[in-house]
Amino acid sequence: MDWDKLRVFHAVAEAGSFTHAGKTLNLSQSAISRQVSALEHDLGVSLFHRHARGLVLTEQGELLHATAKDVFHKLATTQAKLTDSTERPRGVLKVTATVALGSIWLTPRVKAFMDLHPDIRLTLLLTDEEIDISMREADIAIRLTAPTQPDLIQRRLMTMHNHVYAAPEYLKAHGMPQTIADLKDHNLVIYGEDLRPPTAQVNWLMDAMRKAGVTPTNVLKVNNIYGIYRAVLSGVGVAALPDYTVGQSTSLVRVLPEMAGPSYETYFVYPAELRASKRVAVFRDFLLAQISESRF
C-alpha cells in the first residue's frame, strides 16, 4: 500500500472533502482526487461515496480509515518521543482549556512561557467541549473535572472558588444587595440550559435563590462563563463567577461576601505516553509557578 496515497486518503477522510484536504496538504483538488482514485484502483474497492454535498466513507473506507488513524496516532507519538529525546524542549505543544479559563487566566501568561521556551510552538485550543487527548487531538488538557480514562495522567493544579460579583456602575445604579432576598430587584446573569455547562452546579446562585423563595426581576442567560464575565463587567447585572475571572486587575465588586458557591479542583491532564515529555514537564512546571503567584 503506497504511503503517499494512504497519507492523502487519511487527510480526505478527516476533512470530509477533497478541497479541505488539499488545503491541509497544500495540494490541488485534482491532485488529491487522483491519489484517492489511484488508491481505490490499487485496492480494488471504493473508499468514498461521492455526493454533491461532500464525501462519505464506504464500509471499506471506514475500515481503512480506522487503521490509518491508528497508524498516524502512533507516528505522532513516536515523533513526540523523538523530539523529547533532545536536550532542549522543542516542537509543537497543543493545550486545551475551557474558554473562560483559557481566555481570562491562561492566555495573558502565554508570552512568559514563550519567552522561556522559544523552541516550543504552542497552540491553545479553547473550547468547553471535551477534546479527546487520548487520541492526541491535544497534548495537554486543563480540565475542571478529574478524567476517568485509565490511560491519562492527572495532576491537581488548583482549587477554584466561586462568589457573587457585580460591576461598580451597576451597583451605583441599582444599589448594593445586603441579603439574598434583595436580589429579587436585581438583574441576574446565569448559565443557560441549551448547552452542557463546563462544571456542575454552575447556577448555584439561582438554586440558592429558589430555596429562599426569591425570583429575580430580570435574567440574562449566556452559555459561556467568559460571556457571563464580560456581561457583568459591562454592568448588565449580578452573577456567580469563579474567582479567577476577577483577578487583581478588574474592578468587579464581591456582592453578598458571606455567600460562596461550590469549590472544584482543576487538573493538568496528559496521555501516559507523554510521561517523559520535556515539553509537557516544562509547561506543567510553568503553570504551577504561575498558580503559586496568583490569588483566587
Summarize, please.
With 296 residues, this protein is of the alpha/beta class.
Describe this structure in words.
- The chain has about 300 residues and is of the alpha/beta class.
- It has 3 domains: about 5-80, Winged helix-like DNA-binding domain superfamily/Winged helix DNA-binding domain (Arc Repressor Mutant, subunit A, Orthogonal Bundle); about 85-160 and about 265-295, Periplasmic binding protein-like II (D-Maltodextrin-Binding Protein, domain 2); about 160-260, Periplasmic binding protein-like II (D-Maltodextrin-Binding Protein, domain 2, 3-Layer(aba) Sandwich).
- Helices cover about 40% and strands about 20% of the residues.
- The chain has 10 helices and 12 strands.
- It has helices spanning about 5-15, 20-25, 30-45, 60-85, 100-105, 110-115, 170-175, 205-210, 225-235, 280-295; strands at about 50, 55, 90-95, 120-125, 140-145, 150-160, 160-165, 185-190, 220, 240, 255, 265-270.
- A 5-stranded mixed β-sheet has the order 4-3-5-12-6.
- Helix 1 crosses helix 4 (about 60-85).
- It is elongated, with a radius of gyration of 24 Å.
